[in-house]
Amino acid sequence: MLDRVTNFLSIIDDFIWGLPLIILILATGLFLTFRLKGLQIRRFPLAIRYMFSSDEEDGSGEVSSFAALCTALSATIGTGNIVGVATAIVSGGPGALFWMWMAAIVGTATKYAECLLAVKYRVVEKDGHIIGGPFYYIENGMGKQFRWLAKMFAVFGIMVGLFGIGTFTQINGITSAVGNFFDSENVHYVNLFGRDYSVTIVISGIILTIFVALVLIGGLKRISNVAQVVVPFMAIVYVMVVLIILVINYTKIPDALAQIVEGAFGLRAFGGGMFGAMIVAMQKGIARGIFSNEAGLGSAPIAAAAAKTKEPVEQGLISMTGTFIDTLIICSLTGLTILVTGVWNSDLNGVRLTQAAFSTAFSSFGPVLLTIFLVLFAFTTILGWNYYGERCFEFLFGVKYIRLYRIIFVAMVLLGGFIELEAVWVIADIVNALMALPNLIALLALSPVIIAETKKYFDKKG
Description:
Blueprint: H1 2-16, H2 19-35, H3 39-42, H4 44-53, H5 65-76, H6 79-92, H7 95-120, E1 123-124, E2 130-131, H8 134-142, H9 147-163, H10 168-182, E3 189-192, E4 195-198, H11 199-216, H12 219-248, H13 253-264, H14 273-293, H15 300-304, H16 312-340, H17 350-362, H18 365-397, H19 402-416, H20 421-445, H21 447-461
Antiparallel strand pairs: 1-2, 3-4
């Protein structure tokens, strides 16, 4: 029965993530890149400077611009950077990494645009807290007649939070890594829901769920406080560890890069298989890339809207650095590590594949290191996505029932550890795509506003 459900979901996933959506995502990013004259490249040094020294004296908001970025990064830097990259390479070959890069480069312009709009159209609620995101720039920017589209985005946002990036994939990645490390043979198990589960998976799932519940009680400020400390630390240490593996295997890097380029265009396939191989690499790479950096998904603008800033353009610039950090640095390093160590040709998948890559350099300590990183990455992603889901829920139902949402969210975190890996990622892909559609429509419709705001800001700056 479970296999039938998974197969059915895979059919839906292949349809949703077919050429039309891939073209829409890339076309939106390319269109904004062209209209903004390559702003994500030309203004990138300025974005880095603003990230550490933005003007917040007269800005209204709940958290600093840097805290808003860290909150967004806490949601994006997760299992997608470790497990997602591995599954993309297994499913789409090394070429999937190339399409991750392409999605990230054009997606940086998309991230800039959506976070700019979030600040411009954010609203202050009666109790003084600020809320913003695609639901408000659709309703206030496109007009009240499009409130149905805003509601559609909010519904899909809740689904992603409860069934996609926010819960299932994160907790599943953690429990799988912990279970693989402490009880890989499933010697100690309990029978739940008619299936056998390792005791380590059950215990780690319960512990993580308790920690998530304790942090969520504190709301956005506690989440941002945790994110400001954990996110920069874990990202820097992870990069340093992965660089050690790449230095050890530096002679294999050129061949790995060749495999990525050849795989991206199906050059290692023959005849009619070339086009098919390229489409699969493109599909898996873009889907996992969007899953990881969330450019165009509409999630980061929800965090950006809470930033203490008076300039939408400045927050757009700061927020777009998240895509660079997430995909072009962290995902790239993970992918290269899997390729240069040669483990991608094995029968492994998911976290086991990345653990095998770490083991080549750090022996038995490799899986320990990766498990620690995975726990930190996934934990912060869960926190960030709870916030996103809450804001979508608040837009639809008000603040009265937020506690109910949190209870459901915590329950989904616990449930995520008991779902099969393949089903988890297929569900996440589907709800991601559904959430992206209303947001991409809004970005294209409001592109004149994005261009006008950008021009006005830089004209004023001289």
